[in-house]
Write a structure and sequence with these properties.
28% of the residues are buried. This protein folds into three domains: 79 residues, Arc Repressor Mutant, subunit A (Orthogonal Bundle), CATH 1.10.10.10; 101 residues, Periplasmic binding protein-like II (D-Maltodextrin-Binding Protein, domain 2, 3-Layer(aba) Sandwich), CATH 3.40.190.10; 84 residues, Periplasmic binding protein-like II (D-Maltodextrin-Binding Protein, domain 2). The protein has 284 residues and is of the alpha/beta class. The strands form four sheets. The protein has a five-stranded mixed beta sheet with strand order 4-3-5-13-6, sandwiched between helices. A four-stranded mixed beta sheet has the order 8-12-7-11. Strands 1-2 form a two-stranded antiparallel sheet.
Length: 284
């Protein structure tokens, strides 16, 4: 069995949604479906019940999941404990990213990096909340992180290069009368059910309690697509992943969102890291 297929099976079992799991894995939904089908063929049993709106484990899938998690845990332990020396000697780049950064831009950076360094094998992005990004950068888990600018990053140990700018938009189901406006204000959204993407404090930026708090951008978009409320997200993050029945309406006034690539000043930078910092700084 392919270990990556088992990882994908375990994530899909957690998310119960093909598109959400595919987005988190940075692969297409069709690719994920093919991998799960290949795993099911090898095992000789279906792992999931599939409908147009929902995915759930079959009885066989429920029995298989703990074994898959054990296998994944063993492989992870092997990689971290036995292969760490080899991984440190080989070139590599692990980048932490805010949930609000455009996936398509990240994939362009990955292709650029691997074109320069074919021996790299993989440039890894991990989506993490801002507070965890700072902690993991200090601990050395990430060589660089991409996050919005703010006072929390204005500390002596952090250096940065500017990356991209973006703006906020309101995402509404097409049945909502406001969905076909060119722009909209927070005042006009007042009173509508609000779907909130998780942050460290789990607090809403609006003067209302969210009807739902979601863990990921795909989950948040999914709830809007189901007509459960509206949300507010950066346009660049969602423009290529917008459900067909969801409309993005520019929020006014909207502060300009500035994203930077952060790294630790005192840590020596490899040639690859220097090259990627230059790439990010020059990105349009």
């Amino acid at each position: 069995m392919e270990i990556e297929y088992l990882r994908q099976f375990a994530l899909l079992a957690k998310e119960c949604h093909f598109q959400t799991a595919a987005d988190l894995l940075y692969i297409s939904q069709s690719t994920l479906s093919k991998h799960i089908a290949a795993l099911e063929k090898e095992l000789g049993e279906p792992l999931f019940y599939r409908t147009t709106r929902q995915v759930s484990l079959t009885p066989f899938g429920e029995k298989m999941l703990p074994y898959a998690e054990k296998i994944i845990g063993i492989v992870n332990a092997c990689e971290s404990e036995l292969l760490s020396k080899n991984k440190q000697e080989a070139p590599g780049l692990h980048v932490g990213v805010s949930p609000f950064v455009s996936i398509s831009r990240l994939m362009a950076a990955k292709m650029y990096c691997e074109g320069l360094y074919p021996e790299l094998g993989n440039m890894v992005f991990t989506e993490t909340a801002s507070l965890q990004l700072r902690e993991d950068l200090r601990k050395g888990r990430f060589q660089m992180v991409i996050d919005g600018s703010g006072p929390e990053w204005e500390q002596e140990d952090f250096a940065s290069v500017p990356y991209i700018t973006d703006h906020l938009c309101a995402l509404l189901h097409e049945d909502q009368p406001l969905a076909f406006r060119e722009s909209i204000s927070l005042h006009e959204l007042e009173g509508l059910p609000y779907v909130h993407l998780y942050n460290e404090g789990q607090t809403s930026p609006l003067l209302c309690e969210p009807v739902l708090v979601c863990d990921t951008v795909p989950q948040t978009l999914g709830r809007v697509s189901e007509g459960m409320g509206y949300t507010i997200l950066p346009f660049g993050r969602i423009k290529r992943h917008l459900p067909a029945n969801v409309r993005a309406v520019r929020l006014i006034p909207s502060p300009e969102l500035r994203f930077h690539v952060y790294y630790l000043r005192q840590v020596p930078r490899s040639d690859m890291m220097k090259e990627m910092l230059t790439y990010f700084a020059k990105s349009p």
